[in-house]
From TrEMBL:
A cellular component annotation (GO) from this entry: plasma membrane
Full protein name: Large-conductance mechanosensitive channel
NCBIfam families named among the record's database cross-references: mscL, PRK00567.1-4
PROSITE patterns, per database record: MSCL
Keywords annotated in UniProt: Cell membrane, Ion channel, Ion transport, Membrane, Transmembrane, Transmembrane helix, Transport
Membrane topology summary: Multi-pass membrane protein
Native organism: Acetoanaerobium sticklandii (strain ATCC 12662 / DSM 519 / JCM 1433 / CCUG 9281 / NCIMB 10654 / HF) (Clostridium sticklandii)
SUPFAM superfamilies assigned to the protein according to its UniProt record, in alphabetical order: Gated mechanosensitive channel
InterPro entries, A to Z: Mechanosensitive_channel_CS, MS_channel, MSC/AndL, MscL_channel
Self-association and partners: Homopentamer.
Function: Channel that opens in response to stretch forces in the membrane lipid bilayer. May participate in the regulation of osmotic pressure changes within the cell.
Family per similarity comment: Belongs to the MscL family.
Keyword Transport attached: yes
């Protein structure tokens, strides 16, 4: 059983998946920092608030012991911005990886020049005639 486990772990796709998970976790931190530290402050200039998490639409205000009834849309906006940026970043990253992996197209062989074609025809005719005709 230990030998089978070792064989399973050492297969290429399992190792690739492990590396992908580790890099994905680190990439997630970078994107979160990009959103929280760079993009959201710029958006806050437009909206007037840095923290979207507390944005809400109050349907019914609090009355005595009854808490307010509200739709908390700020966290949704924050998650939506995170998702769009993460999706776009992954798209760009995959596009770059595919560009690096892309094999250059083999150029079609160039047409031989007229001289080469003529010499080939002469050679072929000489072969047809055989060595006795020379």
């Amino acid at each position: 059983m230990l030998k089978e486990f070792k064989t399973f772990i050492m297969r290429g796709n399992v190792m690739d998946m492990a590396v992908g998970i580790i890099i994905g976790g680190a990439f997630g931190k970078i994107i979160t920092s990009l959103v929280n530290d760079i993009i959201m402050p710029v958006i806050s200039i437009i909206t007037g608030t840095v923290d979207f998490k507390h944005l809400k639409y109050i349907i019914e205000p609090a009355q005595g012991e009854i808490p307010e009834l509200a739709v908390y849309y700020g966290q949704f906006i924050q998650n939506l911005v995170d998702f769009v940026i993460i999706a776009f970043s992954i798209f760009i990253m995959i596009k770059m990886i595919n560009k690096l992996k892309a094999k250059p197209k083999e150029a079609a062989p160039a047409k031989p020049s007229e001289e080469v074609v003529l010499l080939s025809e002469i050679r072929d005719e000489l072969k047809k005639m055989g060595p006795s005709s020379l």
